[in-house]
Amino acid sequence: MEELDRVFLRRLGKLRAPGCPSTEVLGDFVERRVGPEEQKSLEAHLRVCPSCLNRLIELRELVYLERAGESPPPDLVRRTKGLLSSEEEAGFFSVRILRPLRQLWEGLERWRAPYFSVALASAAALLLVFVGLRVLREGFSGGKGGIGVLGEFSAPEKRLLQALFSLSPDLGPLYQRLTLTLRELPKNLLLEQTRGASGSEVYRRAAPATVLILTEQGEGSGVVISPEGEVLTGGHVVSGAKELVVVFKPESGEEGVKGEKAFSAILLKEDPVADLALLRVEDPPEGLSFLSPEGTTAPVGVGQRVYALGIEGKVWTYAEGTVRGVHPQHRWVGPRGLLHEGGVIEVALSPGSSGGPLLSEGGEVLGFIPCRGKEDSQAGGVEGIRGFLRRARGQAKARAFSAPSSSYRTESYGGGIVGVYVEARVPPPDLWLVYEGGGQPVYGVTRTFSQGELDTVIVGMGPGGKGLTYYFDLDCDGGVDLVGYRGGEGSGIGSYGLPEGSLRVADLAGELAKALKERAVPYPRLQVCGGL
Amino acid sequence: MEIRELLERVLRREKEAWDTLVGRFSPLVWGVLGKFESLSRSEREELCQDVFVVLLERGLSSFRGQGEHEFRLYLRTIAENEAKSLLRRQGRKLEVLDPFLPGEEEEEEGGGVFLPNPGPGPEEEVAGREEWEKVRLCLGELSLEDQEIFWMRARGYAYEEMVEMLGLPLGTLASRYHRAREKVRECLRRAGVLEGKKGEEGES
After folding, report:
1. Distance CA B200, CA B202 (A)
2. pLDDT of res. A500
3. What is the C-alpha separation between B100 and B188, in angstroms, rounded?
4. In what order do the strands lie in the sheet with A442-446?
5. Contact A177/A243 with Cβ under 8 angstroms?
6. How far apart are CA B7 and CA A464, in angstroms?
7. Which residue intervals of A143-197 are DSSP H helices?
8. Quick one: average pLDDT of B20-47?
9. Kind of pairing, strands A468-473 and A315-333?
């Protein structure tokens, strides 16, 4: 099928007919406030004027949002109304000061070394404002305003206020860990010598590209895979983390290690099924070392000699090993007890390696080891990684899958189903159900439906235990939009209908889980299609 | 109350008028901000408030429009700009769900055919325009409603929203959308703008 990509749509949408009506007239048309004559002539124009038609759609949406859209939190509305108070403009005044401050703070947050050094560096600049705020605070402490008024502000504003008044930011666990890490990094250089790692050519090339990743929950390691600062790591390392810091290995011979080794990073994509994640370092330094999984031509065979880099504690380590097996479609239980699937390479490695890249003798990337290794480690193979990267570097996440895009969604659906992984392409979407229950992991994947862009599909038993019922969530919001009934063996979807009442995909997942548990839906019916 | 009168009253700092304005239009601002998926909830709240701060500071006096609809568009622009500024300041990705906004070039004179590539020679441009004219007229064969359905879906609206906004049941929307999309493709092909490809993927 051809794709109606954005380029075409844009062009199409700018086509115009002569005599376009004004915004207000179009708006009146939306609200059906025009006379019958005018209505007819507007309709005639709109039918041949895609440009006006799109304006119409936008106006309609705005009316809809105003009248029937989601309500903002009442607390917010109250505060916003309070911006203009009849007695004093206290609320408004303080917000006026705080807003540019907050924006300044946000701009500063982009700097590499996080809060602590930034706060110190900008102390001088902020001092003036600090004084101003103090005056404000004291000035209002008598009346209705004062700290009470300031205390009404949102969490980031409170944080900012706290930071300004005490001139030291709230050092959460992440930053404490970071401080500790930076202090311990010089030790790494010493150990590097004693373990003889720095001598090896492979280590020398790969170590600068192996990074430590810190989150408020824990740490792990990753690999820099492009000069723009993309970092590959295990999904479980970053899952659920709100803030990410990437720490690079210091050079040999560096005296002390300063904050320049630590960079904040953002999560681009996480693949919970393959247990992979892609990060991007913000404002990466020039001349970044990287290891790309794209260029690998070396085949991987049993008995092959391989090298692994990792980070253990805060020390960069290096290990040699041999390939024990290559499994293109392997399933394993990950560190959080979740089931994963992907192509893996089993390696027997000398102890000490954890996380990091798996390399051939020539220094090519063969895989990536996301987990701490024991005696045998497991590396995600390059094919799987490449597939993940292709999807991860795709277009922006789409709310409704109407344009070419890839997207991931994972939730706990209850009833033993731990995740739903959706990859949507135009036209066919695939669905993975990751189910765990009663010790019987099962994957259920349904293939495409040529009827159109049908997104999330849950398969369950039909009424009376006959046939299969397909539940479609067209816009991926957790609600069932369409139901399809499949007749006997091998036949396609016989009919469609609308769900009775409101059904949630999550509830159905529970039903399905039950059916699977009771083996009411036989496993052979559920086929794994294609690869990741 | 007419929008112009409401705004005048707010400009005179009448508390009641301000409360009305906030009460009435905060869902709109909230909704517009909701389209920026990378915003956290607290950011969304902050920005929502910011929009009204902007209004109080200078926005209301800058608003030159006369009617409600223009005001809504104005609010939307402010909200989008605030969201984009925040994302840019933080160096975050600007995930735009609907980057396709033909409304911007309303005021443009002389034809709305947008050529995505740097301009070809004058002859080719004329040829391009002719083909697209054919497409435009071909589209007119579809009913207005079918075209609306097509555009809304193509621009990323969820079926659920469309049900609310158009008042049509979901099954109807889905099938009409697919028919409309086929028709659009056909129009594009007939005009020679799009190559046709045989065969379709997927199982029934």
Report:
1. 7
2. 65
3. 19
4. A417-424, A429-435, A442-446
5. no
6. 61
7. 147-150, 155-166, 173-194
8. 91
9. unpaired
To the nearest whole angstrom, how far is the Cα of B204 from the nearest Cα of chain A?
5
Amino acid A24 reads E
Interatomic CA distance for residues A66 and B69, integer angstroms: 11
Q: Is the pLDDT of residue B23 over 90?
A: yes
Q: In this structure, what token pair is assigned to residue B18?
A: 């301000």
Contacts 24+ apart (CB under 8 A), A266-269: A266/B92, A266/B93, A267/A238, A267/A241, A268/A230, A268/A392, A268/A393, A269/A388, A269/A391, A269/A392, A269/A408
The answer for residues whose C-beta is within 8 angstroms of residue A294's C-beta and 6 or more apart is: A386, A389
Residues written for chain B: 204
Q: What is the mean pLDDT of chain B?
A: 76
Contacts with A107 from chain B: Cβ below 8 Å: 89-90
Query: Which positions in chain A touch B4 (Cβ < 8 Å)?
Result: none
Burial class (CB in 10 A: 0-12, 13-18, 19+), A18: exposed
Task: Select the residue of A110, A155, A497 nearest B90 (Cβ to Cβ).
Answer: A110
Q: Which residue from A minimizes the CA distance to B116?
A: A7
Q: For tokens 């809809």, what's the residue?
A: A64
pTM score, whole prediction: 0.43
Report residue A513 as tokens. Answer: 């889980």
CA nearest to B163 within chain A: A481
Give me A335's structure tokens: 């560190």
Dihedral over Cα of A70, A71, A75, A80: its sign: positive
B contact test, residue of A28, A75, A101, A402 with most B CBs within 10 A:
A402
Rg (CA), chain B: 21
Per CB-CB distance under 8 Å, the chain B contacts of A263 are none
| pLDDT over 70 at B141, yes or no | yes
AA letter at A296: T
DSSP-based three-state secondary structure for B203 = strand
Nearest to B32 among A8, A65, A67 (CB): A65
Q: Which of A47, A52, A56, A500 to mutate to test the interface with B (most CBs of B within 10 A)?
A: A47
Residues A291, A269: Cα–Cα separation, whole Å: 19
CA angle A303, A305, A308 (to 5 degrees): 125
Q: Note the helical H segments in A198-238.
A: 201-206, 235-238
Q: Take residue A427 and report the two structure tokens written for it.
A: 């036209």
- Spans in chain A with pLDDT lower than 70: 1-6, 85-199, 251-260, 270-274, 298, 313-314, 329-342, 350-355, 370-377, 390-532
**What letter represents residue A530's amino acid?**
G
Supply the ipTM of this predicted assembly. 0.83
Q: Closest partner residue to B202 among A8, A53, A428, by Cβ?
A: A428
